[in-house]
Amino acid sequence: MSMPHRIALLLLCALTSVLAGCASPVAYENSPVAVTNQADAHEQRAWDNHFRFSSQTNAKAPQRAQAPAQQGLMQRAHAVVEQLYEFPKLMVGTILDRGFDLVGTPYKFGGDSATTGFDCSGFVGFLFREEAGIDLPRSTRELIELDVPNVARRDLQPGDVLFFNNQGRGRVSHTGIYIGNDQFIHSSSRKSGGVRVDSLEDRYWNSSYMQAKRVLAAAVPDA
C-alpha cells in the first residue's frame, strides 16, 4: 500500500473514532494532522516564490444549537475531513520546495539522482517518489499513459505533470511539473543547465506543449 493511501486510511480511522465519541484525538505518526505546521511552512515558501496555490472557500450553513460535547466531537470530525482534502496540497508544497532546492542539478541521460543528475522523467519521478510516496513509470511514454485525469491547459494547477513533444516526431519526448503563473520546473538538457524553471509562454515550449495530467489525484482515495 502506498504512503498516500496508508495516510488516508489512518485519517478515516481517526474520523471513525471521533464520530464514536472518543475522549481524546489520536495523533498518528506521519499523518497530515500531525504536520499542520509543516503545511503552513510549505505554503508560505510557495508564496515567497510568487507561486499561488488554488484555494477553495466553503460556505457554512446555519446550524441548530448543539450540546458542547457534541460540538466538540463535530469540530474534531470536520478537522479530520479537512486534513484529508488538504493532503494533496501539502504534497504539492513539498514537491515544489524540493524541486526549487534542486535547481541547477545537472542533466544526466537516464539519471534519477540528486547527486549525479536527472533526465526529465527521472526528475519528475524522483520528486513524486521522495516527497509524495508515489512511484511513477520511468519513461515519458509510460508517464503519459497513466490512468489519472487529463487537465486542460486553462485549468492547470501547481503539481500537474506536463508533457511536451520537443523533437518533432509527433510523440511525447519531455516532461516537467507545473508550478503556477504559466511556469514549470524540469530537467531540461545538459546544454541548458539541467534542472531549471521555464515559461509555457516561451515560443519553444508553447509550440511543443502536448497535454497535462493530475498525477496527485492518485493520492486521494476513491469516493
UniProtKB/TrEMBL annotation:
Signal peptide (UniProt feature, chain positions): 1-20
SUPFAM superfamilies: Cysteine proteinases
Ranges where the NlpC/P60 domain occurs: 89-216
GO BP annotations, alphabetical order: proteolysis
Pfam family, any one: NLPC_P60
One Gene Ontology molecular-function label: cysteine-type peptidase activity
Superkingdom in the source lineage: Bacteria
The entry's keywords: Hydrolase, Protease, Signal, Thiol protease
Gene3D superfamilies tied to this protein: endopeptidase domain like (from Nostoc punctiforme) (3.90.1720.10)
Similarity comment: Belongs to the peptidase C40 family.
Protein name: Cell wall-associated NlpC family hydrolase
